[in-house]
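Hey all, sorry for the wall of text incoming. These are the two entities for the joint prediction.
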Amino acid sequence: MVNQVQRVDGSWQTCKSDSSGASNSGGESSKESSRCSTPLLDADRSDRLREKMRKRMESGDPWFSLEFFPPRTAGGAVNLISRFDRMGSGGPLFIDITWHPSGDPGSDKETSSMMIASTAVNYCGLESVLHLTCCNQSQEKITGYLAKAKQLGLKNIMALRGDPLGTDWEDEEEGFNYATDLVKHIRSEFDDYFDICVAGYPTGHPEAQSYEDDLKHLKEKVDAGADFIITQLFFRADTFLKFLRDCRAIGITCPILPGVFPIQGYQSLRQLVKLSKLEVPDEIMQVIEPIKDNDAAIRSYGIHQAVEMCRVLLDSGEVPGLHFYTLNREVATTEVLRQLGLWIEDPRRPLPWAVSANPKRKVEDVRPIFWASRPKSYIYRTQDWDDFPNGRWGNSSSPAFGELNDYYLFYLKSKSSKDALLKMWGEELTSEASVFEVFTSYITAQANRSGHKVMCLPWNDDALATETNLLKDELEKVNRRGVLTINSQPNINGKPSSDPIAGWGPAGGYVFQKAYLEFFTSSENVTALLKVLKKYEPRVNYHIVNVQGHNLTNAQDMQPNAVTWGIFPGREIVQPTVVDPVSFMYWKDEAFALWIEQWAKLYEDESPSRMIIKYIHDNYFLVNLVDNDFPLDSCLWQVLDDMFELLDAPPEPVGDGAVSE
Amino acid sequence: MVNQVQRVDGSWQTCKSDSSGASNSGGESSKESSRCSTPLLDADRSDRLREKMRKRMESGDPWFSLEFFPPRTAGGAVNLISRFDRMGSGGPLFIDITWHPSGDPGSDKETSSMMIASTAVNYCGLESVLHLTCCNQSQEKITGYLAKAKQLGLKNIMALRGDPLGTDWEDEEEGFNYATDLVKHIRSEFDDYFDICVAGYPTGHPEAQSYEDDLKHLKEKVDAGADFIITQLFFRADTFLKFLRDCRAIGITCPILPGVFPIQGYQSLRQLVKLSKLEVPDEIMQVIEPIKDNDAAIRSYGIHQAVEMCRVLLDSGEVPGLHFYTLNREVATTEVLRQLGLWIEDPRRPLPWAVSANPKRKVEDVRPIFWASRPKSYIYRTQDWDDFPNGRWGNSSSPAFGELNDYYLFYLKSKSSKDALLKMWGEELTSEASVFEVFTSYITAQANRSGHKVMCLPWNDDALATETNLLKDELEKVNRRGVLTINSQPNINGKPSSDPIAGWGPAGGYVFQKAYLEFFTSSENVTALLKVLKKYEPRVNYHIVNVQGHNLTNAQDMQPNAVTWGIFPGREIVQPTVVDPVSFMYWKDEAFALWIEQWAKLYEDESPSRMIIKYIHDNYFLVNLVDNDFPLDSCLWQVLDDMFELLDAPPEPVGDGAVSE
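and here's what came out:
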């Protein structure tokens, strides 16, 4: 790869400082000023959707995308967002969220199209397309929806006419009659901000005068400013390929993505066909009718049929990507993608933590380690920041975190029900030791005394991370003795960036970590720990704080400590995770609150169980330890061993008063 | 070390974003906003002088400082600045530059007090105090000097009355009559910007009515706003210690630094004594008179006498630091300091390159590697930048470098004379091969064919760095074959920050490097090199450019590549050196110009020697190579071996046209 580079005189000097540190905001292309802003580790984070498509087409790398509809209940929203996380890991180029005018789709309700799309972008890091229908809507209303979408960080709109409500619908002079009007409106009001998708109908729109007439309408939509087309579902590859050729023939040049519908059940097929006024081909009906009461058989056939059809589409060389109507289900679509080899089994992580797709966060590449298991909470609490730490945490501006009062939004709740939590964390607690047992069961993934596996803790909504599993034996040992661990990472001294467990970032690099351990423990333990830590200066940095904010640390000048970093070919150093003394104080509010909000409140007021959790909340300390000597074996276990040894020693005055106020 | 940290609520949140990335400018204390600016690796760089003194006194760590006077000639200035570099490495807390009203001290001349002090601060990285005398000066003139000093990055003033010019001096109503007036003026015009030093007279000022009266004047100077006192020289420790006690008795509490004068010769002693109207004690005269024609003996006695006196002063426990009147000489003062154990033999480097002491550069911690051997040139060419790269090079704003037209300031010239250069680089060159020999002799530190050691090259004004010495054998081999190396570093995979050769930064850390090699070589070699480099993608990054700016690179998106970095306890990552594609184009202008300006111009116009250098300037390429795989043995020597092998292969068409335009 040899690049010719322009002469330096003049042209480079025009690239002036903007002195803000942050690069340009919004979804505008940053090409002009790429030298002045900090280079991104992952160009994908700055490219807009149509640019990503262009690059994938150029490199002949087919993609897939996934369509979802908004859920009806808050519980459904929690489930759907978990599904986003799971299906997002397979590597869709984008997802899209449908719009149902009767369901208050633009509201702030947790189930609205707008909020679901916003969650997908901001919290799940997914490039997302929000559907928008325009019929029976005023221009003001539509502009309001678009402004809100932009404000939330959404960058792509699927512009649709939508079905008229009722039958008395007529063309309006002032309103929107066709999707073309909506495309024009978006371009006129928001210039080039949004990437716009429009719908294509391989067999013609049911209301169109003719197939040819419908093609003409599609051409108008594209000419008005649409960037790509997704088609209505169809059942034969030929149907799409003919449509594609017809589009090209009349001068439609943008990407056209086939809408694929894996048949998942007899009823859902019938319903969809009725709604979309499509006919199911005989050869399919003949297979399905005999097995219509056997869901498994139908799904199995659906997968087979979709895979066969997709293979023909991809083999044609004219289909850059496949769009899947998931019906909010995982299994069928995932299986089709696996069989096609499009599902990414081991996705490369651009950074150790899941990035957000909100354009204003595209330069973000440093976060405090404390929220490692609660990234959505971190994103939520920093959503109002004007710019995001980039390069160094110290460069970051305001360390002001959002308050906890808005905290109980659906996506910050535990995924488990109260019943499930009680089974895991104990119907009845008898002592602090029963709390130690819960932590130990979580670490060991063994059943607790009532026979239930502890799959989550208030600070960890998922099972133990693979990486943490490496520390399992040591973690089990200390949790049994009341060192209640909630976050940890092993030290790593230069593993390849391709390492399946610890790796992240571009190929050919090396990743590093300092050993980290964070836990709650009693003030008696802390008194002994502080004595022990004197032996480990300056190797070990610590922060120790209780719920009142009484804080003990040996951090120099309150500086952050980088605990994860990577060295890559032709790049500056990337240090995505730090232990920051200032944000630790915000994290401790959240960490202590979770004892009460998620755990204590499971029990009756004044009940012994509740009082035990309350006692821990009021009296324990939150401790974090960093072993700075990353090339050596971590000494943090030795620190805790020394602490236990001191505690086990024959009674003599060990306290030095450091902890008592 | 256990620090109590304040509660987070409220107080931290008041630390708002200034979004500029850079911290506050000027010399103002940055304490209020230290959380918002990027933490400094070395707190010393942000502390003002009086703060440094306070910390050293608190930790009972005595310091020394050095006084110099401005030189009379440009050649003297070059020598003095080399002396600053050498004596600076011993670790003075500050140096000071005297002010001679008759010598145009505030001008832009390279020999003025103002410019010498500015050079010491900006280019030698020395905390410096500029003397300023006020008698017979208008307020406007003085304000002008102070404003200029501030603008140049000077932060400390020694406020003096100065000797009246002629004998007809009388008190002026409007002017300055005493140093006190000057102190008041500085505080009134520049608030707290400057740290102010005033002079103390252990035996009373010669013009004072009495010793007591003089002490009263000194108290007035301190009360007017002086931060510390340096005394006139004296010959007995008791003289100073009595003075010190008398000062404390009347309420002078600031640091009082004894002025130490190691006797260096009979004449200089007599002259100084006459000027300062001091009496040399009998016990000293009795030793000196008999040996007055034996300079070595006098100097030896002077060292002995000074060491004895300084020991008494330090042992008193009342002297925080010693101030030395060097008379611009090195040996005596250095020897006294060595014997006292105050000279730092192996100074810790805060960064791999020498930092500037200009307050506007205090956050700077990233530079391109190209200027590694020419740091003063880099500082000069970036002196107009508004802010400096900090954390990442990519965050840096304008990459516009100063032009080369102002380039031949004294401190950028070769330290060697034309004669010396001709002896080293050849009275007469006969071919490109004779140039190869010069480079080889420089690398091997062997005499060239005319028997002279090559101690410098246009790109390296000093002998080979200790670190580069590690690469000597390989460098010799390739230079012999016309790979003319001008900059290189070995790879380092985590050596302790205390390593005597490669180490830098705070204790307890680890430093890393990617192997780097930069050289001039012919276009034939480059053609072969480019073929070879294809085998080393993406392990090796390269930039190859000729004097016309024809540039070949495989750098991704013109991103900088960090090639030196360090990991320290409780810190963010520091990456002080990068290979930056953009600034490489500015460096190449300078690197090519040095062929002509320093080498070709040694020879007659049109002479064969000059034409050979001119040919190289016009036709060679400047190449830099980075081996990204720092944990492995460097592959850069193998790359060059492969290139030579290809060149040595039986003739067949090897060019692929990549280099020919």
